[in-house]
Design brief:
The structure holds four protein chains of four kinds.
Chain A (H helix, E strand, L loop, with lengths): L2 E5 H11 L4 E9 L2 E6 L18 H4 L3 E8 L3 E4 L8 E6 L1 H14 L6 H8 L1 E6 L9 H4 L10 E5 L3 E6 L2 H9 L9 H16 L10 H7 L4 H9 L5 H5 L6 E7 L5 E8 L20 H20 L9 H5 L6 H8 L4
Helix pairs in contact in A: 8-11, 9-11
Chain B lengths: L4 E6 L5 H7 L5 H7 L1 E5 L12 E7 L5 H13 E7 L1 H5 L11 H9 L22 E3 L6 H13 L10 H7 L5 H5 L15 H4 L16 H10 L4 H8 L5 H16 L1
Parallel strand pairs in B: 1-2, 1-3, 3-4, 4-5
Chain D lengths: L5 H8 L8 E9 L5 E8 L2 H6 L7 E6 L3 E6 L10 E6 L3 H8 L5 E8 L5 H4 L3 E7 L3 H13 L7 E7 L8 H8 L5 E6 L14 E2 L17 E6 L2 H13 L7 E4 L15 E2 L2 E2 L6 E3 H6 L5
Parallel strand pairs in D: 7-8, 7-11, 8-9, 9-10, 11-12
Antiparallel strand pairs in D: 1-2, 1-6, 2-5, 3-4, 3-6, 12-15, 13-14
Classes of the chains: A alpha/beta, B alpha/beta, C alpha+beta, D alpha/beta.
Bound molecules: flavin-adenine dinucleotide (FAD) and iron/sulfur cluster (SF4) (3 copies).
């Protein structure tokens, strides 16, 4: 693997230089406790200390609400992508974020491939950023705390400088283009990295043993925990919206006032909502809140494992931070496993 | 369907939803060409008060006998009756203190011994007639209104996504006010449609669009109590306005249950 | 010839809310002249009793959609007055902008949908649009401008949510303000075109009669304004807004859900014409001043039909002033700001401002916990009702020999000239509380 | 896990968009059964019209322009090209809007989606089809497929029940079929009023399960039961089949779930790790028992 180094100052120049390749997006502070990915006006806005944004990077690939097709009564259906060639460079993805994209890649491939998703995927450059976990991170338990691919460049923040991993041919091109900004790391630099890495490994406080979790879930379908959870959950859907790997959506059509043409949209949905399983005639398959909350956990930790061999949760902790009623995924699952 | 014949009516209200129709400045002339608006007291002085209607849009709450009479007349005339605005759909602000007898209110406001003021307990129009469709909002949202009119011209009515304000709030990437500031926000009880207007302005939702079909008062009460708010606070804040008709009753039940 | 007529206009068309006119004429004398208001009662004063002070503005805003920004601000100012809250300069500018937004929206709606069709002989704006597409689209553009402004500052065109006690929830961005400025400049051109159309009208004088006028004196004594702390009248009196009850002796009238105000036993008028009569000559500047000199050179006017002309002048003033305010706000900086801090304690407060239809007063008494124990709201339409009935009487006397239909139309025009906001009028004012 | 590859993304961005419907024209509407019309469509693009291929048991996503989309089973057989047929019950927004359309109007069609019946597996076997109400819609596709290749299958049975004689879908067709020697077709209605003007019902009266009594002895080890109907129907039919000692994976049933996309993306129809739209709508009863919530 190709490893380089760049100082903090030069890194800022690098990002400014990258603006000629597309819109550069970075993590910014939004409120006292929250961050968002947003377009960079100046590199001074970068919140290097950030751990999780409110919305994950999925927002760049499946927009909260996006147009799928337009139609007219005269000429039928057609695809109408806004800005199909827009290039975006996102800086600041932590390993869990990069892994979340790899999980979404799975969901949007398969027998039918989602061209909207992959068009944006193709047009997006991914720059990773190393991190130091807080008490809500459990990516280590989910096996998403490190990455060896899935990014173009990866920056390990080591104080005065970043250690840079090159993860793709495109990343390599950028290094060549800005070769005067990057340098070869010294052995001491690698030592600093190893030290930081060890510190990070010791810093994970939250743990979830997922080795036989799907099996436990299978036999604990009727656990009292789900009912308790059902009573507490507002079914507000926040957890799904902020989850990097929740990708459900609704489809609906609009019609123009002239009555001759219209558009078809998709919009994020959540399995926590009652109408999620509503079919004509009014039957709802998951009537109880408990069944719905349970479904979210089962799809992530059970269904996805059976389908793809790994859970779809990345341990990012967003649903823990943003649940208004403080439902804590790890505490819940530990409780189900009898380890409260 | 050719041009539907439409009547637009206001019962007791602030006229806000009718004003929203007039506020569609860019679309108004087109709307006028798509709909045959034959009866609309607020916007035109020559009105047809007898021809059968394809669609009647009714705004406002029933607060007097005159409203009931008008409503029944409209129902008889119209194939479709659509409630526009939270007052017509759910009772709105005016229904906030329905537990106080109207007699007492009258006396408070007009003084004793006044008997000519015709006033009944404020109720949504669904308490009196069959309502075919509800477009909530205090006032209604322009884009939803235009979508409804477009659909009506085709002979349809649009689907209203039954999701809470919270979802739109997160889709706009707002920090949750409950999490961040510990305030009472009615987002999870309220049907989306406003694009989470208030939380996007750092103001908690007070439920002006009315309830989602499935309101989880129990979980909300539990949550706010855990956040250290007293029962009285929760009750007061959650029945703040517009939602009282639906909220207060169920909420009181919940709070009563809690005390067991 | 002795004339007997019964005129009953059951639905006063094209006014906000539900009203009608009932008139009986016997032997050439109007024996009964009632402006009938039968919008249902919503008991707002009772609804807010026991509510926390911070809930009041958004409840009270529902009194009336078209005046919702005025009601929201009046309530907020009254509550701030009770607690002694000092708001920042930028907040004051933003509030000013919001008021102008309401003014632009309301005046252009009234002019476009109600006044112009009357003057040009149409039953409504939709029919008028067929022959006057340009004028109608200009008026709609102006209306939209007012709404855009209210949406940007208030968070919503009707029932603002962003205006709060002590400040604003979210401050608009520079980009938003600059694009607003653009729209305002374009709006000014449009408004001047509309004013040119006004110059071609001959306003008839059948309703002219001596009238008492009342308005707020501009707080900033250098320019025309809708904010002030003193009430002034055409009887040359001046008293603080806290004494608003002096001018608004309210009484319940048998035929109506609204109440009427009398000043020293006499009807009086508040609204655009009152403001222009009392403050126009002294305080107007810029294009608004020019237009006033062209359209209403001889102030004061005693003709209520000139109220619409006065609205035209104010429309131009509001756009001009909004343009200045945008610059002032940008100068103050656009960083987020916490709401003004204050302590909740028992108190009383009055909020007064010039709403599109006239002076609006809110009064609240608050207890130690911050709950409302008494509320009183006096709306312009309620204040104007008695005067309107007076003008109707005068008109009948002048037009008594005209055919019934013509007379009906002319009377409706008088009522509409007030731009009556019936939802406001029936907010129901508290009286004789023991 | 998949390795990140830019090339992979580029290729995937270029696939045919599975969300994009084709225009199709309504060539005929059979209004024989109230609120259960049969729609006959022909794709506007002649090439698609000729080549459109599918499995019995698959479904389409039909768009009514201006209103929306709904998943609807194919009722026609791929052995008869050119026209696709669906039987649609009037239920809500989209189906109502479809009922407003007339012959010669256009709709949008995506598909075919879903797995459909495992026809290759059924070949050389006895096939017992049991349908209740609208469940006849997908079964009819399989039935016609089998009739067109009758020689490839062993004994064929069809049991079909509806509430009233007026509710029987494809009644004429099926009545003719009951006269054929190579198919054992039994029809039953729950009630018959013999209303004036309606032809007199000479068939059986009772529940579809009662028709099992008229079946000859079945060799369940070489028979597939293909069943489709409302939830209550499944309950009783399954009871009968299990009594006959059918293996659970020889019972094929169609399931209904809410679907938005039809292509395994929107999540709504997922049950555990199965997507009704990809892995279904046809499931074996074994799957059904083992997927919680499936029934
Ligand atoms: C695989 C499959 C095959 C089907 N085959 C047929 C058929 O051959 N004939 C027939 O008449 N019906 C069939 N249905 C049912 C049909 O899809 C629904 O009746 C139809 O979607 C109702 O839509 P609506 O807008 O008219 O009803 P509404 O009740 O107005 O629909 C409201 C919402 O619920 C969703 N929805 C409601 N019911 C269903 C449902 N059953 N499946 C998926 N989404 C639903 C719609 O997407 C819509 O968003 C089938 C359903 C599935 C899943
Ligand atoms: S389930 Fe929670 S922790 Fe897991 S990926 Fe989703 S938001 Fe993150
Ligand atoms: S965020 Fe919390 S309360 Fe909301 S749906 Fe998710 S688990 Fe339930
Ligand atoms: S956030 Fe709540 S109160 Fe605000 S506009 Fe939306 S529904 Fe109304």
């Amino acid at each position: 693997m190709n490893i380089l180094k760049i100082t903090r100052e030069k890194f800022q120049d690098f990002l400014i230089g990258m603006q000629k390749h597309g819109e550069v997006h970075i993590p910014k502070r939004k409120t006292e406790t929250t961050y968002v990915y947003d377009i960079m006006d100046s590199p001074d806005e970068i919140a290097y200390e950030y751990l999780r944004t409110i919305l994950p990077v999925k927002k760049y690939f499946i927009k909260p609400k996006e147009k799928l097709i337009k139609y007219s009564f005269d000429s039928g259906f057609s695809i109408d992508l806004e800005d199909p060639d827009k290039k975006v460079i996102i800086f600041g993805l932590h390993p869990c974020d990069i892994n979340s994209l790899k999980i979404l890649d799975l969901a949007f491939s398969g027998k039918y491939v989602d061209p909207y998703y992959f068009n944006r995927r193709k047009n997006t450059v991914i720059f990773g950023l190393g991190c130091m976990p807080d008490e809500k991170c459990f990516c280590r338990s989910m096996g998403t705390d490190h990455v060896t691919d899935g990014y173009d460049l990866y920056f390990n923040d080591l104080g005065d400088f970043f250690l840079v991993n090159v993860g793709s041919s495109l990343g390599d091109d950028f290094i060549k283009e800005f070769s005067d900004l990057f340098e070869k790391p010294e052995p001491e630099d690698i030592d600093i990295y190893i030290e930081k890495r060890n510190l990070r490994a010791k810093s994970f406080k939250l743990q979830l043993d997922v080795s036989d979790l799907p099996y436990i879930l299978d036999i604990e379908r009727e656990s009292e925990v789900w009912n308790e959870l059902g009573n507490k959950c507002l079914c507000c859907g926040s957890c799904s919206m902020v989850c990097p790997t929740c990708y459900c959506f609704n489809i609906f059509d609009t019609i123009d006032l002239d009555g001759k043409s219209g558009e078809r949209y998709r919009q994020w949905d959540t399995c926590l909502s009652k109408d999620y399983t509503l079919v004509a005639g009014g039957h709802v398959f998951r009537k109880n809140r408990a069944d719905r909350v349970k479904n979210r956990y089962y799809h992530k930790q059970h269904g996805f494992v059976e389908e793809y061999g790994r859970p779809s949760c990345t341990g990012c902790g967003r649903c823990i931070q943003f649940c208004p009623t403080k439902i804590h995924v790890v505490e819940v699952l530990n409780k189900v496993m009898g380890k409260s | 369907m050719n041009k539907p014949k439409v009547g637009i009516y206001g019962l007791t209200s602030c006229a806000g939803d009718q004003l929203v129709i007039l506020n569609c400045e860019d679309e108004l002339l087109k709307i006028a060409s798509k709909l045959d608006i034959i009866d609309w007291v607020m916007a035109q002085s020559k009105n047809d008060e007898t021809t059968p209607l394809d669609v009647a849009l009714v705004e406002g709450v029933v607060a007097q006998q005159r409203d009931i009479d008008l409503l029944k007349k409209v129902r008889n005339r119209a194939k479709l009756v659509i409630a526009i605005g939270t007052c017509a759909c759910f009772g709105g602000v005016a229904a906030m203190k329905n537990q106080i007898p109207r007699e007492v209110m009258k006396a408070e406001v007009y003084g004793d011994n006044i008997d000519f003021i015709d006033s009944v307990k404020a109720q949504p129009i669904g308490s009196f007639i069959k309502v075919d469709y509800r477009l909530p909002g205090c006032p209604i949202e322009k884009d939803q209104l235009i979508q409804m009119i477009s659909s009506l011209c085709l002979g349809d009515l649009p689907e209203i996504l039954n999701i809470p304000v919270c979802m739109e709030c997160k889709m706009r990437e707002n920090a949750c006010l409950v999490v961040e500031k510990g305030v009472v926000c009615c987002g999870s009880l309220t049907v989306a449609g406003c694009n989470a207007r208030c939380p996007s302005h750092n103001v908690p939702c007070s439920g002006c669009h009315g309830p989602i079909e499935e309101t989880h008062y129990d979980a909300n009460v539990l949550m706010f109590k855990q956040a250290g708010l007293t029962r009285k606070d929760i009750e007061q804040k959650m029945s703040m306005f517009s939602t009282p008709a639906w909220m207060q009753e169920k909420l009181m039940e919940e709070i009563k249950d809690e005390s067991k | 010839m002795k004339v007997n007529k019964n005129i009953h206009i059951p639905h006063l068309g094209r006014v906000e809310g539900h009203g009608g006119i009932e008139i009986d004429i016997k032997d050439g004398e109007p024996i009964k002249v009632n402006l009938d208001i039968y919008e249902g009662s919503r008991f707002y004063e009772v609804l807010v009793l026991g509510k926390y002070y911070y809930e009041v503005p958004s409840i009270i805003s529902r009194v009336c959609a078209i005046c919702s920004a005025s009601h929201t601000l009046a309530a907020q100012m009254a509550i701030e007055n009770a607690f002694g809250v000092e708001v920042s300069k930028r907040t004051e500018f933003l509030r000013g902008l919001l008021i102008h937004g309401g003014m632009i929206e309301s005046h252009s709606l009234h002019l476009a949908a109600l006044v112009l069709p009357d003057l040009l002989g149409y039953d409504g704006v939709l029919n008028m649009a067929k022959d006057y597409p340009k004028e109608v689209s200009i008026a709609l553009e102006l209306k939209k401008l007012g709404n855009t402004l209210q949406e940007l500052i208030g968070g919503r065109a009707i029932h603002p949510i962003n205006a709060l006690i002590g400040g604003f929830g979210k401050i608009p961005t520079k980009q938003e303000l600059l694009s607003l400025k653009n729209s305002l400049s374009k709006g000014l051109e449009h408004a001047l075109i509309l004013a040119d159309l006004f110059k071609t009208f001959k306003i008839s004088d059948y309703a002219e009669s001596p009238t008492i006028y009342a308005a707020l004196e501009p707080r900033d004594k250098t320019r025309y304004s809708f904010l002030g702390d003193y009430i002034i009248t055409s009887l040359n009196e001046r008293f603080p807004k806290e004494e608003f009850r002096k001018i608004c002796h309210e009484g319940v009238v048998k035929h109506s859900h609204a109440k009427q105000s009398l000043y020293s036993g006499k009807p009086f008028m508040t609204g655009a014409l009152a403001r222009i009569n009392l403050n126009g000559e002294k305080y107007l500047h810029g294009k608004a001043k020019e237009i006033q000199e062209q359209l209403l050179p001889n102030l004061p006017s005693q003709n209520i039909l000139h109220n619409n002309t006065a609205q035209m002048i104010e429309l131009i003033h509001s756009i001009e002033r909004a343009l200045q305010l945008v610059d002032l706000i940008i100068n103050e900086g656009l960083e987020p700001e916490d709401l003004a801090e204050f302590e909740v304690h028992a108190g009383k407060g009055v909020g007064a401002l010039e709403a599109p239809r006239g002076t609006l007063y809110h009064y609240y008494e608050i207890d130690d916990e911050g709950k409302i124990v008494e509320a009183d709201i006096v709306t312009p339409t309620a204040q104007n009702l008695a005067n309107c009935e007076k003008d109707l009487r005068v008109s009948i006397e002048n037009l008594i020999n005209e055919p019934k239909e013509y007379l009906e139309f002319k009377l409706e025009m008088v009522a509409r000239a007030y731009d009556p906001c019936i939802s406001c009028a029936v907010h129901l004012v508290k009286l004789n509380k023991s | 896990m998949l390795r990140h590859s830019a090339l992979d993304h580029t290729l995937k961005a270029k696939v045919r968009n599975p969300y994009l419907p084709h225009l199709a024209r309504i060539v005929r509407i059979d209004r024989a059964v109230q609120d259960n019309y049969v729609f006959y469509f022909r794709f506007e693009d002649p090439k698609i019209a000729e080549t459109f291929d599918y499995n019995p048991g698959q479904f389409l996503e039909i768009t009514v322009l201006g209103t929306g989309e709904a998943p609807i089973s194919l009722s026609s057989s791929p052995t008869r090209k050119g026209i696709v047929e669906t039987c649609v019950r009037r239920m809500g927004r989209v189906t109502n809007a479809l009922y407003r359309l007339k012959e010669n109007n256009v709709v949008g069609i995506r598909g075919p989606f879903g797995n459909g019946y495992p026809v290759e597996e059924l070949k050389g076997q006895n096939v017992l089809m049991v349908a209740g109400g609208l469940g006849m819609a997908p079964i009819r596709s399989l039935l016609n497929y089998i009739l067109d290749r009758r020689y490839e299958f062993n004994d064929v049975y069809l049991l079909y029940g509806a509430r009233y004689p007026e509710d029987l879908l494809f009644k004429e067709e099926l009545t003719l079929l009951s006269q054929r020697a190579d198919v054992n077709c039994l029809l039953a209605v729950e009630q018959s009023y013999n209303l004036p003007g309606n032809p007199i019902w000479n068939g059986k009266i009772g529940l579809v399960t009662d028709l099992f009594d008229y079946l000859p002895e079945l060799d369940v080890s070489s028979t597939y039961a293909v069943i489709c109907g409302p939830p209550i129907f499944y309950k009783f039919v399954l009871e009968r089949l299990l009594k006959l000692k059918f293996s659970k994976n020889r019972i094929l049933m169609s399931l209904e779930r809410r679907m938005e996309c039809g292509i395994g993306k929107c999540g709504h129809c997922a049950i555990g790790y199965k997507y009704t739209c990809l892995d279904g709508p046809v499931f074996t009863y074994w799957d059904a028992v083992n997927l919680p919530e499936l029934l």
